[in-house]
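Operator note (shift B, R.M.): manual run for Mitochondrial carrier protein requested after the automated queue skipped it. Running by hand, logging everything below so the morning shift can see what happened. Input copied straight from the record, untouched. If output looks odd, do not overwrite the archive copy; leave it for review.
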Amino acid sequence: MEEKGGRDLMPLFAKELLAGGIAGGFAKSVVAPLERVKILFQTRRAEFQSTGLIGSAVRIAKTEGLLGFYRGNGASVARIIPYAAIHYMSYEEYRRWIIQTFPHVWKGPTLDLFAGSLSGGTAVLFTYPLDLIRTKLAYQIVSPTNLNASGMSNREQLYRGILDCLAKTYKEGGIRALYRGVAPTLVGIFPYAGLKFYFYEEMKRHVPEEYNKSIMAKLTCGSVAGLLGQTFTYPLEVVRRQMQVQKHLPSDNAELKGTLKSIVFIAQKQGWKQLFSGLSINYIKVVPSAAIGFTVYDTMKSYLRVPSRDEPAVEN
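Run finished. Output pasted below as returned.
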């Protein structure tokens, strides 16, 4: 009888947590420079939108250097590892729970849509403060030769890192300040997370059996799934970003309150195109991010010997 190794001794949920965390951290780091430019597009309309993608990249390189493209990425990775771990693991757990509770439920894409939506909301609630901190750090434009923020209003603070930003944000308004913008995030994550898993699992069902383990097939399915899921929910992300940095905007800016009201306000005052600001960058980012995330997750599950969904899940 083959001796059990460390992988075999790990409980199933721990394997799924580990696979999800590695997949999320790896994918997020690959697209970090595009994420930084996208956030600046979403929150600093006048300064960056006029210069376009290339111009914005050149400006960041000149003012902040290569590391400027990764500003806020530490907070991003610190958030995405637990977020992706909880997201993927809870998706599998919700899926199993639904099947066990309702044995005759249709095990098709609708199940993935429902389980994915629930898992997205669960992951957001656990990790949202880190997403807020990531946005605030990425929002700063800092000169490498001067600690003063370039182009920032007098109301803005300069954060020196994740813990400093976390402490100052908490001081501003306690727990509520750490969850500012969470409403549009939850409204957006339910359809996005659900649609992402729905499209990915549905596309995989149509992959010929001989290509089931093909990395290219998984990359393709993940790319399309992320692309389609993001398109439907992007305006909610713009609202969330603007809510997160609202305290740093000029005092004459009206306060954003409520998800739907904020969407209408941005469309009226900034133009409806602002609701899709940075979407082209997001398309460039989402394709590799979703593709790499799903592919690494499936690969890690195989490495950790996570049983197929068609097999009964047995805890070690």
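Quick read of the result: The two ends are 16 Å apart (CA to CA). Residues 146-155, 312-316 have pLDDT under 50 and may be disordered.
Leaving this for review. - R.M.
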